[in-house]
Write a structure and sequence with these properties.
This protein is 34% helix and 21% strand. It is built from 23 helices and 32 strands. The model is unreliable at 850-868 (pLDDT under 50).
Length: 868
């Protein structure tokens, strides 16, 4: 029987159903090998030799495949139909050859299918091929490039920019997009403008709205009415004149459906409609794919298989009728430069299976399937037909002109199923319906209103609009969009707030550093060109080693140039770059970098040990002025906690400050000195706002732990304190004692108010609630002594079911064996298997040494007594 290998157990189970008993289907559980995260995994001096390592979790999966191949000498690699899938197949082949599981006579083939359906899988089995080497080489090049950038550039960041975590070939470029948008927003200055709208009435008494477009015989531009006075003058000009309909123009229009989904558009639409992040969208889509409900979800392609088009058209005709079916199928052509990424679009595997018929229980999967189903159906439906109407109204002297726009839906077409979401929420005046009007008809003015507006800054990116921008720039690929967007958030460079991506201090600093010292490598054109070179490699038209050599030659030189950089030089350079952002011009024209506290020092950006950034004075430590990183904000400065702490006041000669630390905010008495390396500290409970903390509450925290008194039963002290999980009581000689009894308190205030009676009650309730916990477990069956190693072998009833125990080894008893039926031999097998997995050894008992028989010594002869 051939051994078929796929990535996941869910996929294996589904494919096993289709292939039947004549195949053994196993899962590799993703990638089985990777470059170890240490120096020397890619060796540029050895022609970019790569040192792969099998992950510890993968060893058992490799072993299962090796064991299967001992009996069935044929291997079929059925991993996903993209670059990553090809790479997994290649890694598996290499790993199995190294283990001698693949011999010279072992047939090894590769099959690909775009959907996990019986027809797709069985058809793929009829058309095997070999592993696509150009696709593997493209993967190798990407993996080597990512490693070389990460393991050479990240240490530079650590040394030159305290607090920076990592840099990446594509993630840093993606971060730059977000940071640049934020700087656009900060540099934006809102501009005022006004519009005038009139509510007019037709001779038949129907009302409609028109906006002013001509004033004083001149067409109005957006900013011509720049203040309220000008707007009021425009209102008076309309009021003082009679208005007549001068033109009515109705034009037919059509609106065509969007093409079916590819990876980027699916991520964008799921974000718009459901607020799903890119990673979540791909995770949900993966489960739908593995369940055989949709086609492969990592693709740049928008074309549909002919049988899918036919299926969609049949479903449209059955559900909506022939009017909703265009005469000819709609053909969508791929725009992807890389044919290897351009699989078929993302669509349902069965067009007759709508969301209700699919019977999907998971809410996210159901929503996403419904979105894919409707988009696919709509893509093959007839266009919507509209009538767009423009009505011009003007005064007789031509001084004033207004315009009304409207549209009427004549036939909804594909809109009966699906309408694409939008990234903006702007109102569309064109969608209003206008009454019947004719040229020459007079109109009555019912109401005229000026409206104030301000220009808006560009919006922050969502994950959807960021992926769209990356796609426009040619950065990243379908298989990497989600991981890139997730990585910059995991690193703390970007935070998501109300679905919008906001760069943090660390992210801005890293971007500023890279743009100054590694500008080429965060350039959009350079990154896109490198992606194109890799696409050429995957298409078999490029040499991946040549791509690596060209990249490494310049990149290694850029790394070497930073060796002599001092941190102070780096910070000063970043100060220069970010000066417009950090120190904008003052209203009075004074130097914005002069310290407002001492009047002599110069403000500059500093980095804290925790990795954050702040603005500090050059006269430190004489002047301790600090403010948060960013433009001056008096309100924020008053409440913010700078990296060097916010002074709350003095107590008994000690400064009391509040800090934001690695594990959360805390208060501290005194400074860290050589004589006092660990001054008193106490975490601030999450119920209290650190920025609003005052000296009184800080001293309350620093007084903890609080002694309530000795317990009346045993005289051992009872304490109240605030810990990692909130307020609690402790009954122990000291709070640092690991033993004793802990009991939760209901609220923070109880820490300072709870009395002994209440404390004794809570501690007693805690002890009573423990029940049997802590008691010595008793066996439910004793099997006797271990025959080889000695020691009792017993069966216990555990939290997760019955298990057999010998010494410190616990082995779960399988469901197929009842504890009462377990024999000593079976128990020994379970113990040995468990010991092998945990790396322990079962040492056999040495037989007792046989004692040599004691030879009796002959009795000593009595010396004959001498006679005298």
């Amino acid at each position: 029987m051939p051994v078929v290998v796929v990535e996941s157990p869910a996929k294996a189970k589904k494919i096993n159903e289709y292939l039947g008993k004549n195949y053994i289907v196993l899962a590799s559980y993703g990638h089985v090998r990777d470059l170890p995260p240490k120096d020397g995994s890619v060796l540029p001096d050895d022609d970019f030799d790569m040192k792969w390592e099998i992950a510890s979790d993968s060893k058992k999966h490799i072993k299962a495949i090796v064991d299967a191949l001992k009996n069935d000498n044929e291997l079929i690699l059925a991993t996903d139909p993209d670059r990553e899938g090809e790479a997994i197949s290649w890694h598996l082949t290499e790993a199995l050859i190294a283990r001698k599981a693949i011999k010279k006579d072992t047939p090894v083939s590769r099959v690909v299918f775009n959907a996990i359906t019986k027809s797709a899988v069985t058809d793929a089995m009829k058309h095997p091929r070999q592993v696509d080497q150009p696709l593997v080489e493209a993967y190798l090049a990407r993996r080597a490039l990512d490693y070389l950038v990460g393991f050479n550039l990240s240490p530079v960041l650590w040394r030159k920019l305290p607090g920076a975590k990592s840099a990446g070939r594509v993630q840093s470029v993606c971060l730059r997009i977000i940071v640049e948008r934020e700087m656009e927003i900060e540099a934006f200055r809102a501009q005022e403008y006004w519009t005038v709208k009139a509510l007019l009435q037709s001779p038949r008494g129907q009302t409609f709205e028109a906006r002013l477009i001509t004033l004083a015989g001149k067409k109005l531009d957006k900013f011509d009415l720049s203040n309220e006075t000008q707007a009021e003058m425009a209102v008076q000009a309309i009021r003082s004149r009679d208005l007549t309909v001068t033109a009515v123009e109705a034009k037919p229009a059509t609106r065509n459906p969007s093409p079916p989904f590819m990876t980027s558009t699916l991520q964008q639409e799921a974000s718009r409609k459901f607020g799903m992040g890119a990673k979540q969208t791909m995770s949900v889509a993966q489960r739908l794919y593995e369940a055989g409900l949709i086609t492969y979800m990592r693709t740049d392609g928008i074309d549909m298989a002919p049988e899918a088009v036919t299926g969609a058209r049949d479903a449209i005709k059955a559900k909506f009728g022939a009017d909703y079916l265009p005469d000819q199928p709609r053909i969508y052509k791929n725009k992807a430069k890389n044919a290897q990424e351009a699989h078929e679009c993302i669509r349902p595997t069965e067009m007759a299976l709508d969301t209700a018929a699919a019977k999907i229980t998971d809410a996210d999967q159901r929503k996403l399937y419904d979105l894919i189903y409707k988009r696919t159906m709509a893509s093959q439906m007839a266009a919507a037909r509209l009538e767009r109407t423009v009505v011009d109204v003007a005064s007789a002297d031509g001084q004033v002109g207004l315009r009304a726009n409207g549209q009427v839906m004549l036939f909804d077409g594909f809109l009966a199923v699906y309408e694409e979401g939008r990234d903006d929420n702007g109102d569309d005046d064109d969608e209003k319906r206008l009454p019947q009007l004719a040229a020459g008809e007079p109109t009555k003015k019912q109401n005229i209103e000026p409206e104030q507006h301000f220009t808006q800054p560009p919006p922050r990116y969502t994950e959807a609009t960021l992926v769209k921008r990356m796609e426009e720039l040619g950065i990243g690929r379908p298989s990497t969009y989600a991981s890139i967007v997730t990585t910059i958030q995991d690193r703390g460079y970007v935070e998501k707030d109300k679905n919008r991506l906001i760069p943090q201090d660390k992210g801005r600093l890293v971007t500023a550093f890279l743009e100054n010292y590694f500008r080429k490598y965060v350039g959009y054109d350079f990154t896109a060109d490198l992606e194109n070179q890799l696409d050429e490699v995957s298409a078999g038209n490029g040499d991946y080693k040549k791509v690596l050599r060209q990249f490494w030659r310049d990149f290694s030189a850029a790394i070497a140039e930073t060796a002599e950089l001092r941190i102070t030089d780096v910070l000063e350079k970043i100060n220069e770059v970010l000066e417009p952002h950090l120190f904008p011009p003052t209203e009075d024209g004074s130097d914005p970098r002069i310290c407002q506290n001492c009047g002599a020092g110069r403000l500059s950006m500093r980095t804290a040990r925790s990795g954050g950034a702040f603005i500090g004075c050059s006269n430190y430590p004489e002047c301790r002025y600090t403010r948060p990183f960013g433009p001056p904000d008096p309100a924020a400065e008053a409440s913010a906690i700078p990296p060097d702490g916010k002074l709350l006041g003095n107590d008994q000669g000690d400064e009391v400050r509040v800090f934001k630390g690695r594990f959360g905010p805390y208060v501290q008495r005194g400074a860290v000195t050589e004589d006092n390396k660990k001054p008193p500290r106490q975490s601030i409970p999450k119920e209290w706002e650190p920025e609003e903390l005052d000296l009184e509450h800080a001293l309350m925290l620093l007084s903890l732990p609080r002694e309530i008194g000795p317990h009346p039963d045993d005289g051992v002290m009872v304490w109240a304190n605030i810990g990692r999980y909130g307020p609690y009581l402790k009954h122990a000689p000291s709070t640092s004692d690991r033993g004793g009894t802990n009991a939760n308190l209901d609220g923070i205030d109880e820490v300072w108010t709870v009395g002994m009676n209440r404390a004794v009650q809570l501690l007693a309730e805690k002890v009573a609630s423990r029940g049997a916990r802590g008691k010595v477990a008793t066996p439910i069956r004793e099997l006797g002594e271990h025959p080889q190693a000695g020691g009792p072998v017993n069966i216990y009833d555990g939290k997760y079911g019955p298990y057999v125990k010998w010494e410190k080894i616990n082995a779960t008893i399988p469901d197929t064996i009842a504890p009462d039926d377990l024999t000593m031999a079976q128990a020994i097998d379970l113990i040995d298997e468990r010991a092998a997995k945990s790396g322990k050894k079962v040492t056999k008992k040495k037989p007792a040494a046989k004692k040599a028989p004691t030879k009796k010594k002959p009795a000593a002869k009595k010396a004959a007594s001498s006679k005298n």
